[in-house]
Design a protein that fits this description.
The chain is an alpha+beta fold. The chain is 28% helix and 21% strand. The strands form 5 sheets. Strands 11, 12, 13, 14, 15, 16, 17 and 18 form an 8-stranded mixed β-sheet that branches.
């Protein structure tokens, strides 16, 4: 089904390339883009599952394979085909994008004995891949304890803070494991479903190899076995014959192709050399969408507002960014709608929780006193800078990675021009993908950074990680006792409605203080071939579960 044509020109009548070249501003009002429609019917008859075939998709080359030693999404994308978690997010065409329903994975059920004690009962008979040193042995509770003991004690694990409330993990019996918390943490089960560092690993593999960086260590209980890995070429995964979900996976293999060039990826999708869109989330760039729909109307298309916020973040512990007037000036300096239209095509301005997470995210006009800082107002930006002692602006650095696509670099260049218009001279620093995730995204940078930040499978994750003083992912070095106290309070609140109001209050407080200058979330259009059945797109790192549930009907 076709989507309305993607915006190609800004309100000023300039193409994105013309606008970037000229360094002009658009000055359009903040407004929401509607989801296009009608969409593919989710109840569409797919027929009975079919076994066999090879799914060919654009994958991403991981820096290495250890889920506790890198936060690079490419590693976790890849490992999602190999590993399982205690619980996971439900997959399938009936799941609406932006919803993340927790369901059993390795744990067949769980219970909260009280606010600080959770018990997980494992499925019996789950088999590890038939690779040494595991050789198809059964998964047991000791494996879960080993995984989370390593997660919590590995100093290089940048995601360790997610489970900071966990005091210890105990084995109750062969198939039962208990989590004991230091304090109430209502998001524990949700956190264990994250497709990011929560994969269950085996002690023998770590003992044999020392770590899990080598491809031969990728031995899990997940739907696929890593058969072959050719760096910068492809990874080949074959069906795990003893996967615990009956009948899955339906495809015999997955070819996970390393295609660094976006144009090459699109050309391969056009010519059916790959079966799903070439962008992350198996999507199509908005700038390519209209042309593809005209030439390939038979492909499936599905719009989703992103749950990943696009932001400018900065060293709020250092001048000039420790002054709220400077941060507010930066927010006023950026024409969010201009960026959306010039670079991304479609999207929506957002607060600290990505608008795609509709149940929890406030629209800009709901942000109270902080809403005004989202308005594009260069004059007010210059006034605030002068009031802060910078009447002539200042010089700084603006870092962006080249590893997340050309659109982000284009965006950073236009952002640089918006900042220059109010007197902020930002020298652009392009950073390689691996170095960016090893340093900048963890707060090791100077000046400003333009990038995606704060993926939100639920609201605690993007908020706590970015604002809490004790979070190791607090890349902006925010140290505000008020917002930290608010974040801890919502973690202790069982009542859902009361917790939701706390989450809304946190977004309003964040908008007022602008520790992170949240910009917008892009529209993402997933696309897949009509012979790919039972596939449900969502914005998640868990490619493996979704691939296991689909089948090919060529």
């Amino acid at each position: 089904m076709e989507t309305p044509p993607t915006a190609r020109r800004t309100a000023a009548g300039l193409s994105r390339r013309e606008l970037l070249k000229a360094g002009l501003t658009v000055g359009t009002a903040l407004s929401a883009w509607p989801l296009s429609g009608p969409q593919t019917l989710w109840g569409e008859e797919t027929g009975p599952p079919k076994r066999g075939g090879i799914l060919r998709v654009r994958g991403w080359d991981p820096p290495h394979f250890d889920p506790h030693l890198t936060i690079a999404p490419a590693t976790h994308f890849t490992l999602s085909l190999v590993y399982s978690r205690l619980v996971r997010h439900k997959v399938g065409p009936e799941v609406q994008p932006g919803t993340f329903i927790v369901e059993p994975d390795l744990a067949e059920r769980w219970e909260a004995l009280d606010d600080t004690t959770y018990v997980f009962h494992l499925r019996q008979g789950v088999k590890w891949h038939n690779r040494p040193p595991l050789n198809s042995r059964e998964l047991v509770a000791e494996d879960v304890k080993f995984t989370y003991d390593r997660f919590l004690t590995e100093k290089a694990n940048a995601n360790r803070y997610i489970l900071d409330p966990v005091d210890r993990i105990e084995v109750v019996d062969r198939y039962t494991v208990k989590f004991l918390l230091k304090e109430p943490y209502v998001w524990l089960v949700s956190a264990l479903a994250y497709p990011w560092s929560m994969w269950i690993i085996a002690p023998e593999v770590v003992q044999q190899f020392g770590d899990l960086k080598k491809p031969e260590t990728a031995i899990g209980t997940g739907p696929f076995v890593l058969e072959r890995y050719e760096p910068n070429v492809k990874a080949v995964f074959t069906r795990h014959p003893k996967y615990f979900r009956q009948g899955q996976p339906y495809v015999d293999a997955v070819e996970w192709l390393s295609i660094p060039d976006e144009s090459t990826g699109l050309a391969m999708y056009r010519t059916a050399q790959i079966d799903c869109g070439p962008q992350p989330g198996w999507a199509v760039r908005q700038q390519d969408l209209e042309a593809l729909q005209k030439t390939h109307p038979h492909l499936n298309y599905r719009d989703m507002l992103s749950i990943v916020t696009q932001v400018l973040f900065m060293r709020t512990d250092q001048p000039p960014f420790n002054d709220v007037r400077v941060r507010r000036a930066i927010s006023h300096a950026i024409d969010r709608q201009g960026l959306i239209e010039a670079v991304w095509g479609r999207g929506e301005p957002t607060s600290a929780v990505g608008r795609g997470l509709v149940e929890w995210a406030l629209a800009v006009d709901q942000l109270g006193a902080g809403a005004k800082y989202y308005q594009y107002d260069p004059k007010e930006a210059r006034r605030l800078l002068a009031d802060a002692g910078y009447p002539n602006g200042f010089k700084t650095q603006l870092t962006v990675t080249t590893g997340l696509g050309r659109d982000l670099v284009d965006d950073a260049q236009l952002t640089q021009r918006y900042l220059k218009d109010v007197g902020i001279e930002a020298e652009l620093k392009l950073q390689e993908y691996g170095a960016y995730f090893a340093t900048t995204i963890q707060g090791k940078f100077e000046g400003l950074v333009r990038g995606p930040f704060g993926i939100a499978w639920e609201p605690d994750f993007p908020l706590y990680r970015t604002y809490a003083a004790d979070s190791s992912w607090n890349a902006g070095h925010v140290n505000d006792p008020t917002i930290t106290a608010m974040l801890k309070a919502q973690r202790h609140t069982n009542d859902l409605e009361a917790r939701k109001q706390l989450i809304f209050d946190i977004q309003r407080y964040a908008a007022e203080h602008q520790y992170y200058v949240h910009l917008y979330v892009p529209m993402v259009t997933a696309s897949w071939a009509p012979y790919v059945k039972n596939y449900g797109p969502n914005i998640t790192f868990d490619y493996g579960s979704r691939v296991a549930a689909l089948w090919l009907d060529r």
